[in-house]
Amino acid sequence: MEARGLGISGRLRSVAVFCGSSFGHDPVYAEAARHTGRSIAERGIDVVYGGGHVGLMGAVADAALEAGGRVIGVIPRQLDDRELAHHGLTELHVVESMHERKALMAELSDAFIALPGGAGTLEEIAEQWTWAQLTIHAKRSGFLDVAGFWAPMRDQLAGMVGAGFVREEQSGIVSFSDDLDELLDMLQAPPSWTDKWGRATDESPQP
What we know:
- By secondary structure, this protein is an alpha/beta fold.
- It has helices at 27-42, 55-66, 77-81, 98-108, 119-133, 151-163, 180-188, and strands at residues 14-18, 46-49, 71-76, 91-95, 111-114, 141-144, 174-177.
- The protein has one domain (14-190): 3-Layer(aba) Sandwich (Rossmann fold), CATH 3.40.50.450.
- 39% of the residues lie in helices and 15% in strands.
- It has a seven-stranded parallel β-sheet with strand order 4-3-2-1-5-6-7, sandwiched between helices.
- Helix 1 packs parallel to helix 2.
């Protein structure tokens, strides 16, 4: 896997967005998804996402495309076969497995954002967070805290640090905000954490 980071200018070139394939019960979730896609596109940043046309995923993609942005989808063949793929994207990559999907999304992205979603959303953002801890890559992850959805995760992270399972200096790998612009600015900051064994990010081996 390519250990891609920020561009030469230090700005984000692409952001992966993880989110639900349903809309959820509160209309605020869909509005946040549309705002996310539109705002990322207006910043000239590519959207990388799971390639579906349904739920919050589809809302992010459609809003980014309507704003003139580039949208890159990555979807497993099994889901494409169920006619869940969005075929109006800038690029659509059909892969053979969920593992391949996540690896390609990581390769194509400079940072990661989680919107509200279920177990899949949590699993996807947690894996990228873990890879950063292990310095498989040096990319930040962020939770867009729509209507307090991710507040329990913020508390969980504090508990992990307090219990000694996450190093204090590694807690900065992930950021939380209810403001998308603020969150994107946080994700643009260069890596500053040590790995799980206390080595600085730029001292750790990269694949």
